[in-house]
Design goal:
It is a single chain. It is built from five helices and 14 strands. The chain is of the alpha+beta class. The chain folds into two domains: about 15-90, Gyrase A, domain 2 (2-Layer Sandwich); about 100-255, Cyclophilin-like (Cyclophilin). Helix 1 (about 35-50) crosses helix 2. The longest helix has 19 residues, at about 35-50. It is globular, with a radius of gyration of 20 Å.
Length: about 260
Amino acid sequence: MTAHSCHSIHSRPRLLPLGDSAWTVEFGDDITPETHARVLGFAAALAAAQRDGTLDRSLECVPAFRSLTVHFDPATLDHAALAERLLAIAGDSGSRRASGATWRIPVCFDSEFAPDLEVVAASKWLTPEEVLRLMTGTEFTVYMLGFLPGFPYLGGLPEALDMPRLATPRKVVPARSIAIAGRTCAAYPWQSPGGWRLMGRTPVPLFDPARSERPALLAPGDRVFWQAIDRDTYAALEARCARGDFDPAELLAGEATA
């Protein structure tokens, strides 16, 4: 089936098939707050339609930087009818500001945890202290989760810290590493290979399967501030998390907004 499109991708959403069991709705070519606001508006409209029963509740909606993918069961839903319904909702959903919790997440920026910090500083003609002020003084917004379960992509990295990925990715990136690439920041929930530049590490788990309703600490629309801590504080928090007596709610700086 051919994709449905309308005029300019910048003015109207574009619908693209993803195999025979998913539709992707695109809202723009660039990763910008404005485009992401349209994605969030669409996500909110889909959730409302599912709640009121006008859209099948079995649909799985996955927002990204500039698009949202809707997964469905082709054995129970009509492919073409769903396409038309999604386009109709997308055309009327408008934009929505990032809404969600505000987190202040502790990060240790010691050299052991931040092997790329000094390289980034030198390449940008900054001191390490100036880089840390930029990292901790920025409000980041979670745009999407991907790559690994609970892996957040955060927009808002200052232009002064715009750096390409490593030419040769590391075979092992430690879990809970905070990293940057391009104009994006990220946090690794799990140990994995990776080519992002490592700037620090948090002692707080970013994914916990025991939290069945929300295993990932962060969600699209959340806002994040990195809070610098020393090595002793890091060790103490890491020990609390290992014992299971740390509540992630301690990191909340504000309540979710509508």
